[in-house]
Amino acid sequence: METYTEEEKLRTAMVVTVYGVSVLTMMMVFYALESRHRHFVLAFGICCILSSLYGFISGVWPFGIVELVWSMVAFRRWTRAGKQARP
Questions:
Q1: What are the extents of the domains in the chain?
Q2: 85 confidence band (pLDDT: 50, 70, 90)
Q3: CB-based contacts of 50: which residues, under 8 Å, 6+ apart?
Q4: Within 13 A of 74's CA, how many CA atoms are on the CB side?
Q5: pLDDT per residue over 64-77, tens digit each?
Q6: Which of 32, 35, 67, 70 is the Cys-Cys partner for 52 at CB 3.0 to 4.6 Å?
């Protein structure tokens, strides 16, 4: 079994934290822009999946599950918005 130094553990934690903050920031931006175009709803759903991955990686599995549910809601809204846009 491989052992990691404290510096490597700290670096890994920092990378995971930066990833999480970046994904959550993008998710909030796309949520705010949803009313402008249905593609922002799709982008929000993708960010929810990425945010769910962050939850599982960081060990907060309930957050990961909730974000997966939000991604399903967003994808359903995206498909419905596409059906409504057709003549």
A1: 14-85
A2: low
A3: 23, 26, 27
A4: 23
A5: 999 999 999 999 99
A6: 67
